[in-house]
Amino acid sequence: MALYDKKGPIIMKEEPGVKFYCMCGLTEEAPYCDGSHNGQETGKTPYIVKFSEAKTVKICGCGKSERLPYCDGAHGKFEK
Ligand code: FES
């Protein structure tokens, strides 16, 4: 299942460190970048963030967020 095939967010408890979140949706290791964008001309590169302390994040799984890679609640706006 590709990253943006999900209907809601992926909730992650991250430990301190650098994370590379997928922005193109092609990763096989969602929500992290696995390098699948290389050679695909997606025009996207991973979102890199450094956490200085443990933190829970909501990563967009639907691809509709305007705040990628984070969920902004847009997944609920299009459901019937
Ligand atoms: S999962 Fe995409 S906006 Fe929430």
Automatic annotation (TrEMBL):
Leader sequence residues: none
Keyword Calcium applies: no
SMART domains in alphabetical order: ZnF_CDGSH
GO MF annotation, one: metal ion binding
Pfam families, sorted: zf-CDGSH
Keywords: 2Fe-2S, Iron, Iron-sulfur, Metal-binding
Keyword Ion transport: no
Protein name stated in the entry: CDGSH iron-sulfur domain-containing protein
Species: Brevibacillus laterosporus
